[in-house]
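Attaching the record inline, Q. Sequence:
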Amino acid sequence: MAEWLGKDRELAQHARWLAFGGAMVSSALLTHDLGRPSRFLNMLRVFKAQSPMSMGAWTLAAFGSASAAAVFSKAAERRFGSKLPISVIGNFGQFFSALFGLPFHNYTGVLIGATAIPVWTRTSIRCQFTSACRACRREFRFWSYLATLTVAR
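Structure, as predicted:
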């Protein structure tokens, strides 16, 4: 959003790299938790809207792919100049990483809420995780703003 509005391109660049890194770490942790990489690929064979694990695997794959496309297209654009295919891939990557970032940032709460433990199903844990993620995002923006003020001096 910051880049589309022309506000803070450096913040947008850092956010792209942070999203890409988070998606890669999440993929590695999920693969490790499943035990074998083939199990993660098996989860992507079938799309089940009623399964939280299936939805999470597909959301992770879509978000990770879109954020990777956004990061590498912007890196290629800085190195080789703004060519049409590169900028189109970057714009699509930014749009879809923003689109899939919304359900992805709430996914931990969905998994905990979908467990068989009755305490989690009686509380609004999904909303709590969403609120915590939004608070972290605001905090990141605040500290990034302070860092730009410090660098500008």
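The longest helix spans residues 52-80. The mean pLDDT is 75.

More tomorrow.
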